[in-house]
Amino acid sequence: MNFTKATNSDRVIFLIDFDAFFASCHIIENPSYKNQKIAVAYSEKFSIITAASYAAREFGVKAGMTAFNALKSCPDLVLVKPNFSLYSKVSKMVFEFFHDTYSKKIELASIDECYLDVTTEYKKYGSVEKMAQHILDSVSEKFNITCSIGISTNKFLAKVSSERNKPNGFYRILPSEIKKKLWPLDVLKMFGVGQKTKIILDKLGIKTIGDLANSNKNTVIEALNKSGLILWNRSNGIDPSELNADFADLKSFGAEVTFYTPTQNIGELEQYLYDMAFTVKNKLESRNLSCKTIAVLIKYQDEKLSKKKTSMQQTVEMPISTLEQIFAIAKNNFYSLWNGAEIRLVGVRATNTSKEYNVKEQQTFLQPKKNNSNIETIVDNINNQINIEKLLTGTNLQIKIDEEKRTSKFQKGEFDSDKRRS
Ligand code: TTP
Ligand code: MG
Ligand code: MG
Prior knowledge:
CATH architecture of the largest domain: 2-Layer Sandwich
Strand content: 15-25%
Strand order of the largest sheet: 5-6-1-7-8
Order of helices and strands: HEHEEHHEHEEHEHEHHHHEHEHEHEHHH
Distance between the termini: 59 Å
CATH topology of the largest domain: Alpha-Beta Plaits
Number of domains: 3
Number of helices: 17
CATH class of the largest domain: Alpha Beta
Bound molecules: thymidine-5'-triphosphate, magnesium ion
Structural class: alpha+beta
């Protein structure tokens, strides 16, 4: 195999992933958390840890554990309440810095990961490694958090490399090093190989990435169809995919969360919907925008179900921008969409944004002395448009949520009314 030709080894791609991201964001707000044993979770026994600092990881604390088990292995662990708008603010701020400072070719891959194509830019820094070190130093100096960098000639190899020298380090795989650095790894390390694919590959006697690379291409395609070809190519270091370098991504107004443990707990789901509506509202507010469309996205745990429709959006005639409005429409969409089965991912997104009419501005500008009645009017107008469920003003919202929780058909007797944050 001619790697040089097949992998277009002229490219220099970085995958930058923040270390212990959610936990690290809280250090920005509260510097005394630096190097401390902290984890992000609600302070309830069965709340799931979404991120753990590296200091906490030394005591066995891992994302995906319950707060209860984490405290058992690390009794002085500090649990920090999730703050989704903080995470998206930090992520946006650092990604913008990368875009302005290092490369215009940036693809945002998740809230804490981005690809940078630095094929031409690295020369200014003397070498690829010097540029990587420059990024690590700047992030830590400017933002008081750390990240790690995977470097290679394509996105797949950069992603695999990014996990090899965490935290606060970089790792590079050159095309000539694939045999030594990539092939010994378990196939599970490849993005796109989950337990189901692993079982199929196991049957073919494929355990490592090297096994896959050296197996018969057609046998793998027969077993896994199109994804078989992609995986076989990647195991051989081939990934021609370009960066989806549309910086407009930063201008999208969404938030989503993936659950380590899939959930059908209505209290927990509503809590996340509420937090995400809050993030969306803040994102709109920071650009002084309103929107007309709110979409909700669900991914079910059961793969058969995820093939069914998993997103629902609703467009209203009059632009909206308040938390109550966004949450109410998101909740509407959610209940129209959800079949009660276990959910792996849920997201809320605002589209159809505009500056032309901002409900909040109108309300304070036009009728400053009649705030409340104006809110009621706006809420009523929107209720008439969506015509499914009443939107509520802030005062009534919590009462309504509590009522619904008590009567929900999805409740299944497992809901603990104390679980929801107010
Ligand atoms: P990761 O980058 O996977 O993890 P991390 O940044 O906490 O740790 P590492 O240093 O190993 O990169 O995910 C980024 C954030 O996304 C993480 O801090 C919490 C959140 N997250 C979830 O909410 N659910 C999930 O299933 C995963 C994988 C992450
Ligand atoms: Mg990370
Ligand atoms: Mg990540």
